[in-house]
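Structure first, sequence second, as always.
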C-alpha cells in the first residue's frame, strides 16, 4: 500500500481527521504509517484553517493494535533506535501545537495506547479495549508509555497495566482516567467531531497557549509552571483574539476568533 493511503486525511471546517488505514492489520503502526502521520501533522501545523486534529483508526475493530510486530524480526538494536528517534511519531503528536483528540474506536494497544496518550483528549467507544501488552513480547513500551501513563493515571494503575499486559474495557479506562469520555460505538465519530468543532470555535491563540502551559505542568515544578502561566497569560493580551473575545463579551455578541 502506498504511503499516502496508510493515513487518510479529511478536513471539515477547522477540524482535520487523520484515519490510520490498515484495518486488515488492525491499524498496526509500521514505519510507513508513522512517517505518514509525521508528514500529515507537519502540514496540518502550518495550515491556519485547521485548529483541531482528531486521530482515529479505520474499520470497526481497532484504533491501533500497537507497533507492527512483523517489523521487529531481524531488526538490530541500532536500527530500532533509529526507527524510534528519527522523526518520532509520538514526539510529533505530543509536540503538535494545536489541540488533538484520539477517537478510540476499538483495540488501543501498545503503541496505539501510547499514541492516544500523546493526544490531549481521549474519547473511547464502549467497544474499545486498551492496554500495554509489550510485556508479553519481552518488551517495554517505547513510545512514551512508561512516562505518560503514570503521569496520567498514577503509578499504581500504570504499573498494573504495564506489568500484566492486560487489556481493559472502556468503562474501566474511564474509571482510572485513561480516557476522558466513553460513548456508544456508533456515536464515536460524531461525538469526536462535535467536540473538535466546539474547540475549533475558540481562539487558536489561546488554545495554543493553554496547550503550552498544561504541557509545562508535566515537566516543571509548580512555582515555575505558575510563572510560565502568568507569562503566557500576559502574552495573550497581545493577541487580536483577546481583544475580540473581550469586546464580544462586553457587547453581548458571539466572538469570531481569527488566530491572530
Ligand atoms: N503488528 C502486526 N500485525 C498485527 C498486530 C500488530 N501489533 N496486531 C494485529 N495484527 C494483525 C494480525 O497478525 C492479523 O494479520 P493476518 O490476518 O495477516 O494474520 C490481523 O492483524 C488481525 O489480527 P488477529 O490477531 O487475527 O485478530 P484477533 O481479533 O484474533 O486479535 C488482538 C486481536 C489485538 C488481540 C491481536 O491481534 C493482538 O494481540 N495483537 C498484538 C497486540 C500487541 O501486542 N501490541 C503491542 C505491540 S508492541
Amino acid at each position: 500500500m502506498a504511503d499516502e493511503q496508510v493515513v487518510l486525511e479529511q478536513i471539515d471546517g477547522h477540524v482535520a481527521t487523520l484515519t490510520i488505514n490498515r484495518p486488515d492489520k488492525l491499524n498496526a503502526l509500521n514505519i510507513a504509517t508513522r512517517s505518514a502521520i509525521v508528514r500529515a501533522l507537519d502540514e496540518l501545523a502550518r495550515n491556519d484553517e485547521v485548529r483541531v486534529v482528531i486521530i482515529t483508526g479505520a474499520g470497526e475493530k481497532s484504533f491501533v493494535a500497537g507497533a507492527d510486530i512483523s517489523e521487529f524480526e531481524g531488526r538490530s538494536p541500532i536500527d530500532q533506535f533509529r526507527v524510534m528517534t528519527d522523526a518520532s511519531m509520538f514526539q510529533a503528536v505530543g509536540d503538535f501545537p494545536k489541540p488533538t483528540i484520539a477517537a478510540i474506536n476499538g483495540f488501543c494497544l501498545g503503541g496505539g495506547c501510547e499514541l492516544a496518550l500523546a493526544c490531549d483528549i481521549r474519547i473511547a467507544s464502549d467497544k474499545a479495549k486498551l492496554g500495554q501488552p509489550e510485556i508479553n513480547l519481552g518488551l517495554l513500551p517505547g513510545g512514551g508509555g512508561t512516562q505518560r501513563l503514570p503521569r496520567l493515571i498514577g503509578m499504581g494503575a500504570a504499573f498494573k497495566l504495564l506489568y500484566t499486559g492486560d487489556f481493559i474495557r472502556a468503562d474501566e479506562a474511564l474509571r482510572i482516567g485513561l480516557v476522558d469520555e466513553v460513548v456508544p460505538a456508533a456515536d464515536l465519530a460524531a461525538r469526536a467531531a462535535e467536540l473538535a468543532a466546539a474547540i475549533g470555535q475558540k481562539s487558536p491563540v489561546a488554545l495554543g497557549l493553554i496547550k503550552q502551559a498544561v504541557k509545562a505542568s508535566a515537566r516543571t515544578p509548580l512555582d515555575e509552571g505558575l510563572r510560565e502561566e502568568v507569562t503566557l497569560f500576559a502574552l495573550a493580551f497581545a493577541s487580536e483574539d483577546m481583544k475580540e473575545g473581550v469586546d464580544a463579551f462586553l457587547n453581548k455578541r458571539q466572538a469570531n476568533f481569527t488566530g491572530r
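Margin note: The CA atoms of residues 91 and 118 lie 8 Å apart.
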